[in-house]
Amino acid sequence: MASETNFDGAVMLSPDLVPNTEGKPIGDLVTPSTSATSSPSLTPPLSPVSPTFVSLSASPTLTEKENSWFVPASKKSLRTHNPIRSIVDPIMTRSIKDANQCGDGKDQISLALGDPTTYGIIKPCPAVVSAITKAMQSPGIAAGYVNACGTHEARAAIASYHSKQSSEIINVIPEDIIVANGASGALELALTALLDEDSVLLVPRPGFPLYQVIAESHGARVVHYDLLPQSGWECDLNHMESIILHEEEEAMRKNCEKKYDAKNRAVRAILINNPSNPTGAVYSESHLMDIIRVAARHRLPIISDEIYGDMTFANNLFHPMASVSVKLGKQVPIITASGLGKQYLVPGWRLGWIVFSNNKAIQAVKKGAQRLAQVVLGASHLAQVAIPAVLDPPSEEDRACVASWKDELLSIIEDQSNLLCILINQCYGLEVIPAQGAMYAMVKIHVDKFDDTIVDDLTFMKLLLVEENVVVLPGRAFGLEISAEINISCHVFRVVFCAPENIIKIACERIRSFCLRHKEN
Question: Which terminal Cβ of the chain has fewer Cβ within 10 Å, N or C?
Answer without folding.
Answer: C
